[in-house]
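Form 7-S
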Amino acid sequence: MATPKKDLEIFLESIALDKAVFKGKAKRVADFKLVYPRLTLAQKTSSKTLTLDGATVVKPAFKSWTDRILFKEPVQGTFGIEFSLSDKLSEKELENAVSSTGATLLRLLGDAFADSIGVKGLNGFMELPLDGLAKVLSGKTYSAKTAAQGVIDIEGSDYSSLKSGEEKTLTFPIVSTRDIVDEKHRSTKSQSDRVVRKTTLKADATLGTVTLKIKAI
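Output:
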């Protein structure tokens, strides 16, 4: 028997990162991709620019509903959420990555198309992320490198019993997408500036967790 549809709000509660790897204060782009929440929708993407300082991203300015909300969708059966976190970005890189008018327009159109024409009409677009299409149209070639990624499958049993207003917390691990190398500059008597590289984390190593909250509405 198929799981009945249920309207859910999905929130970002926190991102906990390994202090040894993610040192200092930095801005990063976090992408959340909602994968097949229902038969007529293949995916949606929600992006947030976060200021990460140390191990977590829980700050007073991050506690409002507007800051925390990722998706507000009808869901049915099993669906997934894919997560990716960019390398730290300079102000210029951040501007290049997320500020184009084309990117904003395509994200809005993507949401509208998803509900109006369904999966079949979107197949040609779904192969390429909306921000990728925006860069093509705007002539931009910049793309932020991914530092970490993770995925969670959410079963119907995780939310089917939730009554309106009830919430459930879900946590999943994230892993490094490549070897993370720490570089230090050292001066010696024979050599004025020598770069010492040390691998602090191997690719696919667990380096933190993402905590989401789902709420029935």
